[in-house]
Design brief:
Shape: globular
Helix content: 40-55%
Distance between the termini: 42 Å
CATH class of the largest domain: Alpha Beta
CATH topology of the largest domain: Rossmann fold
Oligomer: single chain
Structural class: alpha/beta
């Protein structure tokens, strides 16, 4: 660590607490089953191990650990304050199956025997130096057991092309400022706003409106981490795929539900053009260009095994409703237009999940007159539109009550991790809804019942 940076990465500003649903075991497993790939956990609730690289303050990892006492979790981060906060939070709640370690990626040696079923890394790959990207890829490949999955999220091109000038200029301007990382970023941003008003073409009114909308929706501490890293570089997915393939990992698909079904989001001609491309990496980067993608969450397998009876495996998948049936929106805007799914299967799914998590087969057993394929199509549409969430069969989570009480107290104070823990896993819940639970609001309490959260 030099000055306030760690090999060019911001070192004096804590990253905001967050929970990324796409990196939970139940989400990753559901994505793999959708592609007929066997997940690391062949049966839910079996023991497993998960390594999170660049874990931040680790509160999201603590949530997953609280939901999975059968799991073992290790978070690694280079910022001592992050590690101290995650360690104290877990210890204060008596959650003993998660450990945090302060270390540089370069200092993590390859194990004699791979030890992890999952390796996750959210956002880090495009924020660190080329040498640290190499280390991250090396660690993921070396630490994964055969059949294990790496889930890697990263800024990608071409969607970030419009922000390249902004990042370079704001980083250079901030280098001249005094104060904390956030203070330096804000001072540099004020100059950017002046440049925009003066007619700088790279900082047009529409671009500044985009930034201002982002400033209204994410914590202030996000911005220094996003823009004040010396090696910040959005990546082409084809390069990421090639580099991980060289490490012996195979691309197993996206972990983004909004990209789950090309037939939902692409026009027929676009799908035909993609189908004519043989290679996964070439097809993915072409799709990025079609959609203007700015972020990837990719799954890479250390050996791909196919699911036996894939259709039956999907029918056995568990789901929870993030919305009530009355508030469900049975359509979604996509690049191909509006996808409408106001049909008996979708209503059957939401009616059943209104009573709590269950399987697709369980929904069918309630007397639905259509087919299992109808229900699976409805599940895909509702998942893609963010209205349902994959979960695990019910299990013991003895620390859930303590974890949820701590998060509710934070939410009432105005800030909290957007997640709670129940018998079916860690679930995304926005902070206002968490605060509303503490105040006894009926809609929030109904959400808790749907998610089986104590």
């Amino acid at each position: 660590m030099t000055g306030d940076t760690i090999d060019g990465y911001l070192g004096d500003e804590a990253y905001p607490s967050n929970f990324h649903r796409q990196f939970t075991p139940q989400w990753i497993d559901a994505m793999l089953r959708h592609r007929s790939i066997a997940p690391p956990r062949r049966t839910a609730r079996q023991p497993f191990a998960l390594l999170d690289l660049g874990c931040g303050d680790g509160l999201g990892l603590v949530a997953i650990a609280a939901a999975h006492p059968e799991g073992r979790f290790l978070g690694i981060d280079a910022l001592p304050d992050h590690v101290a906060r995650g360690t104290a939070f877990a210890a204060g709640l008596g959650i003993g199956n998660v450990e945090f370690r302060c270390a540089l990626f370069a200092d993590i040696a390859d194990p004699a025997v791979p030890d992890f079923d999952y390796v996750t890394a959210q956002g880090v790959l495009a924020w660190v130096s080329p040498a640290n990207r190499d280390h991250l890829r090396r660690i993921a490949a070396a630490q994964l057991k055969p059949g294990g999955i790496a889930c890697i999220g990263y800024n990608c091109m071409p969607g970030w092309a419009g922000a390249l000038a902004f990042q370079q200029v704001v980083w250079m301007l901030a280098e001249e400022k005094q104060g904390s990382a956030l203070q330096r970023y804000e001072a540099a941003f004020a100059q950017i706003r002046e440049l925009s008003a003066a007619g700088a073409s790279s900082f047009s009114a529409s671009f500044m409106a985009w930034v201002d909308n982002l400033r209204a929706t994410v914590p202030a501490a996000y911005f220094p981490h996003e823009y004040l890293n010396r090696h910040w570089q959005p990546l082409w997915s084809s390069d990421v795929h090639a580099d991980l393939t060289a490490q012996g990992l195979s691309f197993a698909g996206t972990s983004r539900s909004e990209l789950l079904r090309p037939d939902f989001i692409l026009r027929k001609a676009q799908r035909a053009a993609l189908a004519a491309i043989a290679g996964d990496a070439a097809r993915e980067v072409t799709m990025d260009a079609m959609l203007g993608q700015s972020f990837h969450i990719d799954l890479f397998a250390k050996g791909i095994a196919r699911v036996d009876e894939a259709h039956a495996a999907r029918l056995g998948g568990w789901w929870a409703a993030l919305k009530s049936e009355a508030n469900t929106i049975y359509e979604a805007k996509t690049h191909a237009g509006t996808l409408r799914f106001d049909n008996p299967a979708a209503h059957a799914v939401m009616n059943a999940l209104g009573e709590g998590p269950t399987t697709v087969a369980g929904i069918a057993a309630r007397g639905f007159e259509g087919t299992g394929a109808d229900l699976l199509n409805a599940i895909d549409a509702l998942w893609m539109s963010g209205q349902i969430h994959p979960c695990d069969p019910p299990g013991e989570a003895p620390n859930a009550g303590a974890f949820n009480a701590a998060i509710r107290a934070q939410a009432v104070a105005g800030t909290a991790l957007p997640a709670l823990v129940g018998r079916h896993g860690a679930m995304p819940v926005d902070v206002p809804a968490i605060a509303a639970v503490e105040k006894g609001k009926s809609d929030a309490l109904a959400l808790m019942r749907r998610l089986a959260i104590v």
